[in-house]
Amino acid sequence: MLSALLLVSLTSLAVLAVGTVGPHLLARTGRHEGIDTGWLLIATGIAGATAVVASTVVAHRLLAPLQKILLTSEDFSSGNHSVRVPDLGRPELVPLVERLNAAAAAVEQSERRRQRLTDDVAHELRTPLTALQAGLEELRDGLVPAEPGTLASLHDQAARLSRIVSDLTDLSAAESEGLHLEIAPVDLGELAGRALAARERAMSAAGLTVRGQVSAGVIVRADAGRLHQVVDNLLANSTAYCRPGDSVDVRVHTEGGRGILEVADTGPGLDDVERASAFDRRWRGRGADRAQGSGLGLPIVRALVTAHGGEVELSSALGVGTVVRLALPLAGAP
Questions:
Q1: Alpha-carbon distance 155 to 132, whole Å?
Q2: CA angle centred on 287, ends 284 and 293, rounded to 5°
Q3: What is the band of 219 on the pLDDT scale with cuts at 50, 70, 90?
Q4: What whole-number distance in Å separates Cα of residue 266 and Cα of residue 326?
Q5: CA separation for the pair 91, 65 (Å, rounded)
Q6: Quick one: which of 81, 270, 260, 280 has its CA closest to 171?
Q7: How would you classify the pairing of strands 209-214 and 247-255?
Q8: Is the model's pLDDT at 92 over the cut of 50?
Q9: CA 256 to CA 260: how far, in whole Å?
Q10: What is the dihedral of CA 108, 113, 118, 124, to 10 degrees?
């Protein structure tokens, strides 16, 4: 673009020089004034032809990349969200192309999240909705009496629906770049102790032995509410899948400049295939039929920990137990 504009400028200067200096030179040679007029006509013709050629070149250089951008935008608006603006070979247009492609990538990612949430809702809600509808139809048609046991079963299905909707909402929010986190220094050990105290009665009722090995003063940068949700999900997962007589250990310490929280149980454990799928959406392991959760606990944990700039790992052995390990940045760490 700059080279084309420079060409036009130089051409204009050349024509101007011919049209102004030329007549004076002829006048000094004693030529007739009519020659001056002819010279001006010739110069004007040259200037007009040059302007047309230069304008055509400049217009082509300007419109060719814009035409590519227009075609790409039309393709994108028609539903092909994977299309991107190609390299236009124009350094001055690189920032524009980068911003357009970044916006297109953001729209594509948002569309994938929306589609995944829709699929999850359809998949997760189908079973409890079917059971709830069947139970209500039996009551309506008088096939079963409205006894406390029947009503309690329907209430359980409704409660399961509520849990699934809540978990799907949390997972969608956690995976969104727009998730709002109120980051502040948080004592990881103190938070884990509160979460453990809130779950201890339910875990004891399930026949589990609960032990806490918490170091004081492990201060991490986190959203306390979201981090409490992470720990609570891990404890709920152990409660759901462990057997009476199993134990659950909660450990908090520092390691390599990070705060570490581990929830280790002596439950049934996972085999290699199950371990590889543990953080997948919609996956539920052995014993899922008797567990009351939605199966989204670990995906929510991973999404929330990742949003905090941390890491989560799971190790497990069949018949031995499972350990979920969280690593979060310490407050004041670079």
A1: 9
A2: 55
A3: very high
A4: 18
A5: 12
A6: 280
A7: parallel
A8: yes
A9: 9
A10: 150
Q: Tell me if the domain spanning 184-329 has CATH number 3.30.565.10.
A: yes
- Count CA atoms within 13 Å of residue 191 on its CB side: 25
Domain residue ranges of the chain, discontinuous segments joined by +: 2-80, 97-175, 184-329
Cβ-contact 271, 318 below 8 angstroms: yes
Express each pLDDT in 167-189 by its tens digit. 677 777 776 666 778 899 999 99
Nearest to 172 by CA among 293, 304, 277, 82: 304
Instruction: Among 14-23, 104-113, 310-319, name the one with the lowest average pLDDT.
Output: 14-23
Distance, in Å, from the CA atom of 247 to the CA atom of 200, rounded to the nearest integer, reads 12
> Taking the domain 97-175, which CATH number applies?
1.10.287.130
Residue 211 pairs in a beta bridge with 249
CB 217 within 8 A of CB 187: yes
Q: Could you tell me the CA-to-CA distances from 296 to 72, 204, 267, 292 in Å, in that order? A: 38, 23, 19, 11
User: Do 214 and 197 form a contact (C-beta atoms < 8 A)?
Assistant: no
Give, as one character, the DSSP assignment of residue 330. Answer: B
Is pLDDT above 80 for 317? yes
